[in-house]
Amino acid sequence: MNKKLLSILLSCLIISSNTLAFANNEIKEIKSTSTENAVVVPKKIENEIYNSIEQVYGENRAKEIYEHVMQIAKKEIETRPEELKQEDLTRADDWYKDEIIYMFYVDQFGVVTPEKPNTFKDTSAMFDYLKDLGVTTLYLLPFADSPMSDAGFDVKNPRNIRADLGGKTQFNDFVKEAKKNGFKIKADLILNHVSEEHEWFQAFLKGDISKKDYFIVKDEMPEFTKYVDEKIGTIVEYKEKSGKISKRRLIFPEITDNHYRKVTLNGKDYYFYHTFYPFQLDVNWENLEVLYYWLDTINYWTNIGIDIFRFDAIPYLSKEEGTNAENLPKTHAIIKLISNYIQMTAPRTVIQAEACQYPNDILPYFGKERKFKTTINNEEKVIKRTDEFQICYHFPYMPAIWASLVTGDKKYFIDAYKSTPQIPSTTAWGIFLRVHDELTLEMIDPETREIIYKALAPKGAEFRKGLGVSGRLANFLDNNPDRIEMAFSILMSMPGIPIVYYGDEVGVRNNFENAKKSEKERIERHKSSKFKLLSYFDSRDINRGAVPAKLFYGSSKDYYTFNSKVYKKVKNLIALRKSLPSMSKGDFTLLKTASPHNFAYIRSYKDEKILVINNLSSEKLVAEITIPVDVVLKSDGHIDHFKNLVNGDDVSVNVSLKNRTMHLRIAPYGVVWLKL
Fold this sequence. Notes:
This protein is α/β, with parallel strands linked by helices.
């Protein structure tokens, strides 16, 4: 055998061996040449990343893409700031379960004058207030560079900071100061779409036809029909060239007629897909450049020290023909890829899903729980986490809580709780009463939807043709401090991570002036657009707008009767939750009660048991509660006097050992927390 032939055979054997290794997912650990700070990537993570790549981009390209992703990861690990590496090592895997999140718009929270929106520097002056309130994580609603057609969710440049907020310098200073004050930072990653002002779309408009591959684009507008499904709203059915029918929810039927925006370039028409607005164009995740772009973006923010990423509109990443473009397997594969990438490069950081779906559809977004060993600065750490999201919003809880609040009947929440699947031990639900968005009514039956809509729409505004209601917490609860306290009692004692929306803790009301102002700004911004919106009014803007610093600080210092009363109640409940491990880590046990107005349950963790009783009605109530056998036995039946942890009042109870019932009087909209 000659030398040339032998060389060819050896080369073939090497190639075959490498191919087989990848096919069997036996991927070698990547190590840097430096022995001081060796880059060691867990094999389990490597395998999961490779499998995700193969599912999205195909078997033929998987190896090449995998190697490029690993190169990006290796560079990121090697250059990661040392202080963040130490946090990667020392943070508990499930640190986020103990957090209380406060969400706000930087320019609108704690303004000095309404005419002059805040910058990051201005908002730093609110740290003392936030520390006094007791929240632990600051969720900064979108602050990336944006034309602000959708409150910042239409991102122009995801790696830049809006100039009107003070730019990168002020942002970096804000984060450093926030960390010094003990706060963690949560921020949005908007992976589904970009603004029409993004460089990719602008390059297309200037004649770079190749940039259309960064988006979901058709050469012809598909034929479509529309109808209203009473459960999920307006549906558009598209007849694809392939003959398949794609049935898609039209999220904003009052704004746009369908999912496509027509763009004409050099006499040729192109139709760009958008899940939401025509000025927010959906990106094509099967384009590798989109993947690499977002990995680099993630690197940028994790190295600044973002603790939690909220993935906006995450169910819509994949747009396969013949599907509803929601919750598809490729979407989950992309999420797994990104989640594992973050766990590999920045394990201190966790991710949260915004998936407005039914609980059984949300469950897969947590992924599978597993353990893996990683090495950081030559120190080994074992991490136990899921391979997708660690936190998911529980959207059905919000309308269920509100149905119980407006009817005084606990059954709506109980039904929602019973239909909630068990989630992995290291994960958590994100729970809330109000947020920047509407009070969505999609995830409930039409009858309950009608109950909530009739009760709350007159106190706020309609959203999405009856599928949602916009409005502030205080308005919905008739500006009643006791009702507000009772609502926050539920929020602070339920399983999950509580999220407080700025101003709700001081009883801020609807801001219709802000909605009118935003409408005028949108009309002005889009007056030269070649597409037409059916409406420029967004009722969610009544939930937003400037709230002055003097209202927050004044409420904390007892300057205002109503606002201060609300503030004290909310602050107290936050402090109480933080002092009781059972509220963040404990089990949740519903209790049988004689009255539908009496919403009672036990939170338990190790030896700690806390009985929570909420009176949903406007009348005094003699609560009759069936308590667990172990509680009766533990006390030997001598359960007669307690102290209400919420207000310090002595509580007298009457216990019948025969039928295990506890009786106590509770005030209208009363709240009682008892340590058993």
